[in-house]
Amino acid sequence: MLKRLLIIYTLSRTPIHRMTNQFIQEQYEAAGQAHLFKHLNTLSASDKATFFENLTAVAQRESPSELLEDCQTAIKLHEDNTDKKSTLEPLPSTSYSSVIGNPQLEEEYYNLGHKAISAGEVAIILMAGGQGTRLGSSQPKGCFDINLPSHKSLFQIQAEKIITLQRLCNDCTIPWYIMTSAPTRAATELFFRDHKYFNLKKDQIVFFNQGTLPAFDEEGKKLLLANPTSLVESPDGNGGLYRAIRDNGIFLSILSQGALSISYMYCVDNVLSKLADPVFIGFAIKHDFQLATKAVRKRDAHESVGLIATKDGRPCVIEYSEISNELAEATDEDGLLLLRAGNIVNHYYSVELLKEKLSQWCDSMPYHIAKKKIQYFDNTSNTVVKPEEPNGIKLEQFIFDVFPTSSLERFGCLEVDRTKEFSPLKNGLNSKNDNSETSRQAYLTLGTSWLKQAGAIVRNNALVEVSNTLSYSGENLTKFKGTVFDKDGLYLE
Question: Are residues 433 and 420 in the same domain?
Answer without folding.
Answer: no
